[in-house]
Design brief:
Layout lengths: L1 E3 L11 H12 L3 E4 L26 E4 L4 E3 L6 H25 L1 H4 L3 E8 L31 E8 L7 E5 L3 H9 L9 H7 L9 H15 L1 H6 L3 E5 L4 E5 L5 E5 L3 E8 L11 H9 L5
Parallel strand pairs: 1-2
Antiparallel strand pairs: 2-9, 3-4, 3-5, 5-11, 6-9, 6-11, 7-8, 7-10
Helix pairs in contact: 4-6, 4-8
This protein binds succinic acid and fe (iii) ion.
The site of fe (iii) ion has 5 residues, from loops.
């Protein structure tokens, strides 16, 4: 499940063999794991390791590097606002450096998504089942259709109290799809244009997005499945990092506090083997194009 690298620096150079291994592992639904790759906070950044600065209505503090915009925050002075933005900007740059060095094939075609900081303890957090990331799921976003693009995420556990980030990892995507596609309804004709018109979605919700959302929701809703599907618990200790394609890997975040995360989007043509993408797998199972 984990492909481990001994990397210690975000700009480390990787030999060709490591780059090949990384692509192969990711596209097979594995997680790239960097137990020695950490993100150092400066002394004045330490105070941000507290849930007090996160807006209680949002799970995360978010940053968009392309716009220099920070949101989901509260109780920050102007100076702290700038400092937190700088911290997240640094993480976003480091993540991009790592992807460029390890996955140069992908990096040329990536779009930078948002950076998030998650200073709220996961366990005990109450939400609706749809928003509950303690339930196994593949990522799909109701308001942000990704139209078949892959979701690539870099995580780093920056917990100062020795606390692991604990995930469960479920079965391979093709098995997930096989199980839940049968329960999925077809997209209602015209609904995607309607959602777009009303600005409920930020772009057109393709048939791919429709099925991914349904799979996401139906997995989370199924208590029996959550309990009984074959799964593995994984611990990411403090000061470790990992890369995962969360549209493909069935995951649930069970415990932990203080993680940084950078999202990238990428077209499936950047993949070495696009037949392993959720888009192509769903198209194969449904015998129809979905974007
Ligand atoms: C998720 O993507 O479901 C949550 C991951 C995390 O915050 O550790
Ligand atoms: Fe997720």
């Amino acid at each position: 499940m984990l492909k481990t690298f001994s990397t210690q620096h975000w700009n480390e150079h990787f030999p060709d063999s490591a780059q090949q291994q990384a692509i192969y592992s990711l596209e097979n639904g594995q997680i790239l794991y960097f137990p020695q790759l950490t993100f150092q906070l400066t002394p004045h950044e330490q105070i941000f390791l507290s849930p007090d600065y996160a807006d209680p209505h949002t799970k995360n503090i978010s940053y968009q590097a392309s716009q220099g915009r920070l949101w989901g925050v509260r109780h920050l002075t102007d100076e702290q606002h700038v400092q937190l933005k700088e911290m997240m900007d640094r993480f976003s740059k480091y993540s991009l450096q790592l992807i460029k060095e390890l996955l140069p094939r992908y990096s040329q075609q990536l779009t930078m998504g948002r950076t998030s900081f998650r200073p709220v303890q996961i366990s005990g957090r109450k939400t609706s089942y749809r928003k509950d990331d303690k339930r196994l799921h593949v990522d799909a976003f109701p308001s942000s259709p990704n139209q078949g693009h892959r979701i690539l995420r870099v995580f780093c556990n920056i917990n100062p109290n020795g606390e692991d980030r604990v995930w469960r990892i479920g079965e391979p995507f093709e098995q997930v799809a096989n199980k839940f596609l049968l329960q999925c309804s077809k997209p209602v004709p015209g609904i995607a244009a309607f959602l777009r018109l009303l600005k409920i979605t930020k772009s057109y919700r393709t048939a791919y997005d429709h099925y991914m959302l349904q799979i996401h929701d139906r997995m989370k809703a199924d208590d029996e499945y959550q309990k009984n599907v074959s799964q593995e618990e994984i611990h990411f200790p403090p000061h470790s990092s990992w890369i995962v394609q969360t549209d493909h890997v069935s995951h649930a975040a069970m415990r932990g506090q203080h993680v940084l995360e950078q999202t990238f989007y990428m077209p499936i043509k950047a993949m070495k083997d696009e037949s392993q993408s959720p888009l192509r797998i769903l198209e194969r199972l449904l015998k129809q194009p979905l974007v």
